[in-house]
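Hey everyone, long-time lurker, first post.

I ran two proteins through the pipeline my lab uses and got sequence/structure pairs for each. Pasting them in order. The first:
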Amino acid sequence: MKIVTEFPFAITDEPDMGIVLSDGCRLSARVWRPEGAGPVPAVLEYIPYRKRDGTLPRDEMMHAYVAGHGYACVRVDMRGNGDSEGLMSDEYTIQELADACEVIEWLAAQDWCDGAVGMMGKSWGGFNCLQTAFLQPPALKAVVSVCSTTDRFADDIHYKGGCLLGENFGWGAVMLSYSSRPADPVLRPDWRAEWLRRLENEPWLAPRWAEMQEKSDYWKHGSVSEDYARMTVPVLSWGGWADNYMNTVAHLVENVPAPVQGIVGPWVHQYPHTAVPGPAIGFLQLALRWWDRWLKGIENGAENDPAYRAYMIHSEAPDASAKHRAGHWVAETVWPSPRVTLQVLALGERSGEGQPSPVPTAGALGAGVALRVPVTINTPQHLGMHTGEFFPMGLNAEMPGDQASDDAISVCFDGVVLSEPLDLLGAARLNLRLSSDQPLGFVVARLCDVAPDGSSVRIAHGMLNLCHRGSMEDPAPMPVGQTVDVAFDIDQMAYRLAAGHRLRLALSTTYWPFLWPSPQPATLTVMAGSLDLPVHQGSAAEWTPPEAQGATPWAHKVLRAGKTTRKIETDLINGTTALVISDDLGDVENLTHGHCTGESMTELWEIHPDDPLSARAVHTWEQRQSRGDWSVKTNAWAEMTATATHLHLKASLTAYEGDTKVFERHFDDKVARRFV
């Protein structure tokens, strides 16, 4: 990344501007403003991740950069987080979004703002800027949303295809830890009383989310897909192929009536100017182009840029810690693209004499799949150990690894060896006729790129809880032994398979720890099926993005270096397999204001290959903060297990001031298994 130190405007940096809401709650904002620019548009980032320490390293490189180009950049700690007052009860609440609208109104009324406000964010911030745009506050003129979703039930960390994600538990543990930290005493003299109040009211959210196993009004709130017609604010949407929010970009570009564009790169769950795998690109310059057009009204032609720009990844060896992915940028003027055609691949059928019947050819794939149907699927419970994280953050083997070992215990349909490259762009759709011997179960589909040496790269995956085969709102158990037709989408992709490789469809009834297992091992019998494959006509490099840039990084000192390990372990006595993660981020000192912070985490995901009820997840978190003689620490512990009828979720939260324990609380919840 190129570090830029000279900008059109010098900037002022105010660390704690108070925004007092109508109910008297004071939110704390850090504000970067351009000197001598007069009233300018404001750009708001509004999240719970603590501007004083949590997101400070990225904030200083982004917001100072944008402010230097003539914008007031405002980074607000949400109610109940960081240096703001109040309490937080859940994610994306009515209160949270009402506060956002009130902050936007407040910003527009300041004498240093010209009345136009933009909103940006990644992940939580990417979500709530879409959700706020849905509410149409008058001063909000444009948003830039990174790694977000349009559907909180179908495409977030809780459920996917109606399947309960392991990350539902994991994210509950994360937020139990993240929200346990106090305000900085330098900014909040009442920090201790407010900290104890936060701890006493801290929610353990994983059970609440796990209990809501259908698409209810709870999930529809904040899901902009419920009424795309309300999305009248221009949107620039970003995603990454190594992240699990890659579907949002295409959904927005296809459905939102406002000016909307999307860019998807090879990246993990990070901003595109800092993300891996490379190439990183000039996210800040492209965001400025969007702001200039819609906040300042500059006729720069941004509205005529391609509707959908996607980095088409090329075949390479699998690498769960890839620093760079080979590929090229495809630029589509409209989406869906007329350059994409759906080619139908039939899963092999048996003829009357037990021989494979002919399978239609499909473009560059040649003669379809080799495996014949009917076929039964009942995979071991530990399948999925190489799936990677729901939202990988970096290079610690968090991306999908070699799928060959999981393929070996899946049911795989292989295409022929390709004689020429095959380009895929869009979402494949899988259609199956099947029966199940259990009322609860799911099916997972992975599209993989299989090299001549047998290594397997996951291109995309999709899944369906069979209780949701007809409806996400009104699920129903599978009729045991009855044949039904089901269909579901596999995630969006942009991928070029090399000549000499083959395309694989791998099916499984397990996917640990990405999905929580069904209560009984289900056997599915697939009678017939087909795959609708989005084949692109082929392209060369069609877009050259600007280079990645940022402002001067934060001034800090490493007090203790961190270390991360990620292992798959097999217990040779009891037969369990476990994913074991230790992530110690070390300790650092902010040299600007002297605040020292540190964080450590462990995760255990264990299961026996033959027993879904052996599944167990245990997470621990420690947060450390200090300055001089002052120090605090919080420890969060969480565990999830299950019986055939219930999910069991336990947690504890402990806080220390110095070496003295000042708070302790325990949670013990049991959730009925209705559809998972």
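...and the second, right after it:
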Amino acid sequence: MKDVVYLQKYLLSIALGPVQDFVQAARRTRDLWFGSYLLSDVSKCVAASLVEDGATLIFPHKESLSGSQAVANKILAVFEGESVVRVLDRAHQAATTWLRETAQTAVQALQRELSSRRDVFDEAHFFRQVDDFLEFYAAWVPMTDTYDRDRRRVEGILAARKMLRNFDPNEGARVPKSSLDGVRESVLRISTNDALIERALRRMGIRPGEALDAMGLIKRLSGQRPYPSVVRVAVDSWIQAGMSDERFRVQLGRVSETLERVLIEAPELDVVSSARGRDGSEVYVPDHYENFPYDGKALLEGFFEQEEFRQLQEQYPGLADELKRVVTRLREIRGCSPQPYLAVLMADGDRMGVQIDRMTTPDDHSNFSYRVSEFARRAQDVIVQHRGVPVYAGGDDVFAFLPIETCLRAADALRKLFEEKVASAVASDKPSLSVGIAIGYCREDLGYLRQLAQQAEHEAKEPDRNGLCVLVQTRSGGDPIRVRCRWDEDPVPRMERLAAWHQRSEIAHTTGYVLEQIGRLYGGAADEDIVAGELRRALSRRTVAGERRFADDVMDDITSLFRSRLLARQALQDGAATAALQDCASWLKFGHWLASHAEPEAWQNVEIRAGEEVDT
């Protein structure tokens, strides 16, 4: 009689990295996007390898492996077999093989451009860094009849394993560190006086003097798809508003032709970059970006005083004069220059861990994962529909760049999508989506903009989750304008209404600052009646253009805002009345900022009649 082999069922948990440090190592939007894309595809490779070996995926859902949405760096699966270690080894090997193939593609692209100079690239050190990049942590436990207990146990073991990190010796060299994060050594060896090499690298998106390690080089060279600049997102509303004018469309075509000449004749200068792939395709952007597939910084006011343009004047004076002439004419037709601000949106699910802890079977957890995957897939469409550029949409996380005119409605649409796809399937303690939006200067440091968006997302979750937080950091500096509330208050229509009131000169631009001063005067000592009286007096004596008093609808709207904020504050703290008044001040300052920095057409169709007051 043959021996009977009894197969054990295991619950596997895998975590891949690095995540935050790797993604944040970015100077360009493409660096951010490809960092997220690369980690997602590594996770998909690992998950696919597990499926090939007979494992059943719980998270991410199996269908997300073939979709366009990203997946998180966490994998949970059930495997029944004799050897878990061999299955995990094959999954690890699948990930490293994919990384090696991606790295080899980048090397081939570099060698095609630098065929005459192989000495500017340290290939051996490049692949050592690639092989040392991936962090792969795994844990597994035999399954019992209690899935929730098994899951908590395996996650605890995995967390302990991640604390015991592998610290292999560094085989670095005495060369400059990466310009992106300063962690690993550069694999480029470029002489500062080699103009031909610098020109070739500039065509590939590598600036003169920029040092890149292996993963930074892969971010720039992999594939044929550049990623739109944040400047292109910022100027999009200005371009779209002008497209209704035939003269503007014709002149925009002339600007595009001139910028294309700059790309061809002066690729070594940092004057313009293209949002079109080397194969002629445009990807990960709204369709209308094809009207102007360039970064757009040449359209900004003050560009002709920047160092990039001065270099173009010195080396290509005729081309510089032509660029200045066609752009100046385009601004004249439009009547203004583009506003140099954009929105950086980050969203994250609330109470997701609570829901997962309640899952009593793998099937329940897998079904929940499917709903989360559907949200991620549709979230990308929501961003593009609002003229934005998605950087990452995986699980319950979303990261995107948007024009300031559309960011609020995009946030609201994401919140509603999350309710439809995820929260609707939960009976109690429903999960929610907190959204943080950072609005900043489009030529600000990309890492700083991302940190500001992370701060906004964190504040959206505090103290009671299900929130929206908007931080506006002006180019002049100072403390950002901060607006935070819960989605229960239906904040987006009110925000747009305040912008419309300001744009129509129904509210004086100083009103927010007056309320702010009153709040500081009283501190936390005033009660509700005193503060409400001060609010009424401030509104009654503040005049607007033409010495006209506030309209009744405007006063009712601001008073309703105060009552709404008061209800929210009373549930959280003492001194709620003055805190609510400070909130009103911030909302009015935000409304004025939106009105003065967005395209006028953005608020023309806003319904300005105040809706019913929302209880908080």
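Reply from user beta_strand_b:
Welcome! Quick read of the second one: The beta strands are 8-17, 56-59, 74-81, 135-142, 341-350, 389-394, 397-402, 432-441, 467-472, 481-486. The longest strand covers residues 8-17.
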